[in-house]
Amino acid sequence: GGVEKMTNLPTEDVTDTLAMASDRLYEVPAGFTFPGLYAALATAYMHRYGATVEHLMKVAIKNHANGALNPKAQFNRSIADVMARKIAKAKARGQPVPTWKDEWDFLHDESANPVIAWPLRLFDCSPITDGAACLLVVAAERAKEFTDDPIYIIGSGQASDCSPYGRADLTTLRSARVAAQMAYEMAGVKPEDIKLAEVHDCFTIAEIIGTEDIGFFAPGEGYKAVDEGLTLRDGPKPVNTSGGLKAKGHPVGASGAAQVVEIWKQMRGEAGPRQVPGDIPLALTHNVGATGETCVVHIFERR
Fold this sequence. Notes:
- The protein is α+β, with helices and mostly antiparallel strands.
- The chain has a single domain, classed as Peroxisomal Thiolase, Chain A, domain 1.
- 35% of the residues lie in helices and 14% in strands.
- It has ten helices and eight strands.
- The strands form three sheets. It has a four-stranded mixed sheet, with helices on both faces. The protein has a two-stranded antiparallel ribbon with strand order 1-4.
- Helix 3 crosses helix 7.
């Protein structure tokens, strides 16, 4: 399990503190923060494959819609709800009322959704979160001593990589690809066998790249999958039904365990209104450290 208390610091101090997890020799002195680093990944991906800011926004819309169904999410409201609340608040205070027609108007409005590090805007970024998550992990042969319906870890992979400035390709995280391959080989399954995944979406571009790195989609196809609705809760490859780090929240030390909690609930059919339809025999979690300097992938089975 894990726990993190982040909201006792101002936003700029949290940003600076998290930046200390990046490279101290080159990235920190150059003023890079994680929004800036992931903005570089997003820019490279968009340049190579033709994705747009609207694809990033679609990830945010999806994950906020999922978070709206999660009572433990930090942002348990859709972006349409956020927009409606801002309009209602302006009316109640006698302030100028925004004229947004829909979510797209809202997300393109610089005052409502400012650029943090182009092309990433506010709603492309995971929030500052307080949170905790806890798991009970025991030997498989003892699992039935604690529950009649255990979830089994059948594959695990961990890999590391150099910092982004030393990589030949910024449109993928090599550590994630290697960790996923290790987990698939250990489990004896393939990406197409996985029904559901919780992917490390610290920024919206991270989800798109992550779905490619775990093999759900080919390189350059992740943003098209978003367009086609393939990663929606009722789609063929549901991703981040919890709301993801984007809407559920990102209490850094607890985020990985919280991903597993969501998988556990979904596989047991206990996710309530956000429950994915049908059986979920196999699911996956993908958790990244920094900008891919490390990644851990787990595969889970319900028997």
